[in-house]
Design brief:
The complex is a heterodimer of chains A (325) and B (245). With 325 residues, chain A is an alpha/beta fold. Chain A has twelve helices and 14 strands. In chain A, strands 1-10-9-4-8-7-6 form a seven-stranded mixed sheet, sandwiched between helices. A four-stranded antiparallel sheet of chain A has the order 12-13-11-14. A three-stranded antiparallel sheet of chain A has the order 3-2-5, covered by helices on one side. The radius of gyration of chain A is 22 Å and the shape is elongated. With 245 residues, chain B is an all-alpha fold. Chain B is 76% helix and 0% strand. Chain B has helices at residues 2-15, 18-36, 52-81, 84-89, 95-123, 130-143, 145-157, 160-177, 189-194, 198-209, 217-242. Chain B is globular, with a radius of gyration of 18 Å. The model of chain B has no long low-confidence stretch (mean pLDDT 84). Classes of the chains: A alpha/beta (325), B mainly alpha (245).
Chain lengths: 325, 245
Amino acid sequence: MVPLTEPGTRARSPASAPDGAAASGVLLDRVSKSFTTPQGPVHAVRDVELAIAPGQTVALLGPNGAGKSTTIEMLLGLTEPDRGRASVFGRSPSDAVGAGLIGAMLQTGALIREVGVRELVETVAALYPAPLDVDEVLELTGLQEIAGYRTTKLSGGQTQRVRFAIALVGDPALLILDEPTVAMDVEGRHAFWASMREIAARGKTILFATHYLEEADEFADRIVLMARGRVVADGPPTEIKAVVGLRTLRATLPGADLDALRRLPGVARAEGRGDAVTLTCEDSDAAIRALLAAHPGARDIEISGAGLEQAFLHLTGDEAEEEDR
Amino acid sequence: MSALAYARFELRRTLRNGRFLSFALGFPLVLFFLIAGPQRDEHDLSGSGLSAPVFYMVSMAAWGTMMSMLSTGARIAGERAVGWNRQLRITPLSARSYLATKVATAYAMALLAMLSLYVAGAILGVRLEAGRWILMSLLILVGLVPFAALGVLLGHAVSVDSVGPAMGGGVGILAFVSGFWFPLDQGSFLYDLGRQLPSYWLVQAGHVGLGGDGWPTHAWIVLVAWTVVLTALAARAYRRDTGRQ
């Protein structure tokens, strides 16, 4: 049993301290949430501390089961934290929702039947005190051409766009999107992020969850990394990319000395099985040069981007594993 | 204003739902003409002192209005299944407005069901004084209050797959034991059972409006008791379902 300590590689920027201007934006003050399942309790979110200043675009990055959705639900007032406190623009989440300050696209959810696209967006607009012009929103989300369609006639990507329009139309100060591009094709994603840029330029505070590092890197001012219900890193994309932008280098190298490989520049970890070695690299360019210089006989070389899960394992090490037990 | 906009939206959606329209509006109308049509000259149905068209007009109005109130359950269950209720909860629409809209829509549909049966009754020769129509309608609307709560309860406690059978079966059984199909004999087991149910008094509301005795104290007690119990259960189901306090 390892005592509950901060993982060694944890990177935290001072921006996450809940004080000053940030307190008037989005704030999670050491919130925790557990669920009871037939397999026993699940600690979905543990002591998460997060402060987002107004106007910031923040990505909540993490693999499935990291606690992203639960964190978002607490900010929306859909879930009450067991411990800790959530606030949005100095109000409780449900007060902020009631005042029309929040628009959100939840992870799951289809659209109700027996309604048209425009009709649905108009109805949601009517629920907010100062909504945007419906035509403008339909234009921005690329729904103009299908505005007259019934919701049951839409493709997965179109449905996502309608859900995005619903989140936007109330002109909320805070926009929360839980894996918004999940059902979209490449073109759809592209168009989606283009409209997101426009929204961000209007000074909205944006929080989006994703498990794509590229999306987080490209569109966020700041990335908050979550794993196993905790924030494991928090900082600007460049900083986070250095932490999770790992690559895996595989090669066949008979008689390799793993300790020597581990000392090569750019290599974080070395494992071997038979003649095959796997190097987890922070800088795969430096590693491959050094590897070939030292071992010209290396063959079957393969470099691939490590998945987020792998990066998180590297990041949280074995401590998290033991903590779970 | 926002609640009003949402109510209009609900109403439009409901009127586009063909299944609902056929079950709550079409079905009782068809039954009424099938049953009461051939007996339109029967003036003392089973010794009840009521003509067949009047008796079945009232019964089928009770059926249609009950179905309309319970259809709230189908709508809520359907919305829960697609996550729409969660989406609504992150808009400024309050829980109170949301539930009020559901109940108001149910009442609007019940009015439609009731009026369509009145028209059907008039076609088969039912003629009443204006005061009688009004009194009868008011009692029916009051008698529907526990069913408004039951609709909300069904919607939050039952899944979308089972809400249809639950409604159909439930209304069928209630109709049978509440004297929808034939007048219940005083002193029979069904009569004793029916008198404890709000659906029985729904049919009686019609009869009262037609010149029968007024609702006895017992009816009001039954109505209030069911309303209290069903509202408490509906509130509990709503809170459990949404995690709201």
